[in-house]
Amino acid sequence: MSTQFLSDSFGRVMRDLRVSVTDRCNFRCVYCLPETDQAADFYRSKFDPLKNPAPIKLELPPLQPRSQLLTFEEIERVVRLAVELGVEKVRLTGGEPLLRRNIEVLVAKLAPLQGLKDLAMTSNGFLFQHKAQALRAAGLTRMSFSLDSLDPANFKKMTGRDGLEEVIHSIRLAKQLGMNPVKLNAVVIRGLNDHELVDLVRFAMNEGVQMRFIEFMPLDSNRGWLRDLVVSGREILERLSAHFDLEPSVVTQPSETARRWKVKGTESEIGIIAPVTEPFCGHCNRLRLTVDGKIRTCLFSLGEHDLKGLMRNGADDGTVQTRLRSIVWQKEDRHHIGEIEFKQPERSMSCIGG
Ligand code: SAM
Ligand code: SF4
């Protein structure tokens, strides 16, 4: 077993690996994979036709052919090697991870890995009820669900699907199965769901789960992101503070993406993730493994590093770990959102693995 860590040239040590298990999704979220007429209308209404006369085209990104997907054995191998090099947290994501057939089999392979302290999944929750028992039995104890709206019509506008009931059922089921913590993620978009901030917090408090609000990032497949659509973390906090008595929670890890706030006198906590207006790159300890076996050292990386080819060419564990270390060494210092030179990555969030 190696004693070396995955350190970058800025002194950051990688502890957190996000694993995308599929680039397919059964939702069409307006901020990720927009496809519906409602989504197109929303973006059109926000663009200045004089500056941007071209109509918004909602084309879905190409999907990886199945032969290019990492197998469960390959994913397990990368995770094991990364854990040997100090990674402690793994999150299964996508696309929609519950669309990957037999995903519980992968969970069962990863959960017992020695040194892995935290295995979690992020899902839109639509299919969770069909897999919940199997995932729990396989050793999954932490779930995050996306929940952007509590209004069925707005939920459909935001996700492109009728599914609010199923998602609420999933949240309750995860709690009943003893999953802890259960977190809810809402991407906040001005003019779409920012009027629901307080209702979402009240809902989370009633359900005994943690609500987290995320700033809209330029990672949507139609490249329709506009700065004006971002509700800053600061504004979210101000708007919530008018309704709840909030106090900052103790920060246990500087690398935490969420700034957390406690609702005074309760056990409830709210997280605000503000990568656009308050970047946390200086403490970033995350890596991403794409569904086709590429390592991304930043959500906004313009380049990727192939591990699949290396593994399929018969590289031994030591060689893969050496490659991982050299990739991490090249991790970029920060993202450049808001700067002239910022370029949106080619792959959208659903293909990168959020
Ligand atoms: N399909 C699953 C889900 O929605 O939870 C997992 C994958 S999704 C890409 C992971 C997370 O990325 C979700 O919490 C989603 O809200 C977030 N996300 C997607 N696009 C985003 C964007 N443009 N800006 C900020 N967060 C985004
Ligand atoms: Fe699918 Fe998740 Fe992207 Fe929504 S955020 S389109 S559920 S991958």
Report what the structure shows.
The structure is a single chain. The chain is of the alpha/beta class and 354 residues long. It has a domain of 233 residues: TIM Barrel. Helix content is 30%, strand content 16%. It has 11 helices and 12 strands. The chain has a 12-stranded mixed sheet. Strand 2, helix 3 and strand 3 form a beta-alpha-beta unit. It is globular, with a radius of gyration of 20 Å. The chain starts with 15 loop residues before the first strand and ends with a helix. The model has no long low-confidence stretch (mean pLDDT 94).
Mean pLDDT: 94
Task: Please state how the strands of the largest beta sheet are arranged side by side.
Answer: 7-8-9-6-5-4-3-2-1-10-11-12
Please identify which CATH superfamily of the domain at 16-183 and 288-352 we are dealing with. Aldolase class I
Mind telling me which CATH architecture of the domain at 16-183 and 288-352 this is?
Alpha-Beta Barrel
Counting DSSP E segments of at least 2 residues, the number of strands comes to: 12
Q: What is the number of helical segments per DSSP (H or I, 4+ residues)? A: 11
- How far do the termini sit from each other? 30 Å
Rg (C-alpha, Å): 20 Å
Helical residues, percent: 25-40%
Low-confidence stretches: none
- CATH C-level category of the domain at 16-183 and 288-352: Alpha Beta
